[in-house]
Design a protein that fits this description.
The chain is an alpha/beta fold and 319 residues long. 43% of the residues lie in helices and 18% in strands. A 7-stranded mixed β-sheet has the order 3-2-1-4-5-10-11, sandwiched between helices. A 4-stranded parallel β-sheet has the order 7-8-6-9, with helices on both faces. It is elongated. The chain starts with a strand and ends with a helix. It binds adenosine-5'-diphosphate. Adenosine-5'-diphosphate (ADP) binds next to helix 4. It catalyses: beta-D-fructose 6-phosphate + ATP = beta-D-fructose 1,6-bisphosphate + ADP + H(+).
């Protein structure tokens, strides 16, 4: 392996830059030539490939977003798109590709490796919906953002005696909502993985008020898909005055936390080292305290599960 290329694809997450930095500097350390691609698979197809050196990644470890930019590229899902990208890889004599992104990005490199390109995935998505890694890059920073928002809203909630609903990102995953809700000490957490009963929840909220609670915060994962309906139910049927806050893209930005910078540094370096060992079509991930590489076939075939123990803990602590 002499030349490798790195790209970021799909939804951005804080810490992607730290991962790019680790890939580039680890590659250079091992005597490889390292190239970057702009705008993910779109840039690969269009040949937006350029050499990177030690200084290309200077001063970026603390920055959110991705200096390589990212995109969603429908063409890469077609044979024509994959062939065009392959042609560019051959033109630049590239031996290995590191793709930083989420499950869509990994479906892309799985297809690409079938054409003979050596690939390695680095998990970066605030949703934490990938199996075979305890955490993806960006999750910890997003969790801190969610927790900070809950703390602030709690101040207003206590002053006004209203029920506040906070919708948290995560696509079909309730991870951010569950962990953010526990860390923020909220009263109710609703996630798509576990069914809920609104009349029961209302009862719990009423009991809280009767005990003299001054605030009530309900965290709902976006995957539940019924934030406004739930708010309306609580207002119309139960008589709670409610306010909805959708945290939205706030959760994707910001300077990465120490945890995310360390994780990104370890995963980025490991991706290059696994490519150097001749491995391909794998994702590097954090398992316990170790970095391990797992076949994309395995990663993409099993859903990430939410820990029932953590959910039970949330139920016990949220009163
Ligand atoms: P994420 O990586 O954050 O999950 P997306 O789901 O948007 O983001 O996927 C990123 C890109 O990966 C897509 O825009 C597309 O170019 C590529 N991709 C997704 N699925 C496939 C697939 N089945 N085959 C080839 N490329 C894919």
């Amino acid at each position: 392996m002499k030349k490798i290329v790195v790209l970021t694809s799909g939804g951005d997450s804080p810490g992607m830059n730290a991962a790019i930095r680790a890939v580039v500097r680890t590659g250079l350390f091992h005597g490889l030539e390292v190239f970057g691609v702009e705008r993910g698979y779109t840039g690969l197809i269009e040949g937006q490939i350029f050499p990177m050196n030690i200084s290309s990644v200077g001063g970026i470890i603390q920055r959110g977003g991705t200096i390589l930019k990212t995109s969603r590229c429908e063409k890469f899902k077609t044979k024509e798109g994959l062939d065009m990208a392959l042609q560019k890889i051959r033109e630049f004599n590239i031996d290995g590709l590191v793709a930083i992104g989420g499950d869509g990005t990994f479906r892309g490199i799985r297809e690409f490796s079938a054409l003979g390109v050596k690939t390695m995935g680095v998990p970066a998505t605030i949703d934490n919906d990938l199996s075979d890694t305890d955490m993806a890059i960006g999750v910890d920073t997003a969790l801190n953002t969610v927790m900070g928002a809950i703390d602030k809203i709690k101040d207003t909630a206590s002053s006004h005696e209203r029920a506040f609903i906070i919708e948290v990102m995560g696509r079909n995953s309730g991870y951010l909502a569950l962990m953010g809700g526990i860390a923020g000490g909220v009263e109710v957490i609703l996630i798509p993985e576990i069914s809920y009963n609104l009349p029961e929840i209302s009862l719990k909220l009423k009991e809280g008020y009767q005990r003299g609670k001054s605030h009530c915060i309900i965290v709902i994962a976006e995957g539940v898909g019924e934030t406004y309906e739930i708010s309306k139910f609580l207002e119309d049927k139960i008589g709670f005055e409610t306010r909805v806050t959708i945290l939205g893209y706030l959760q994707r930005g910001g300077s990465p936390s120490a945890f995310d910078r360390l994780l990104a540094s370890r995963l980025g370096a490991a991706a290059v080292e696994h490519l150097l060992k001749g491995e391909t079509s794998k994702m590097v991930g954090l398992m316990g305290n170790k970095i391990e590489a797992t076949d994309l076939e395995v990663v993409l075939s099993q859903p990430k599960t939410i820990s029932q123990d953590l959910y039970n803990l949330a139920l016990r602590l949220a009163k």
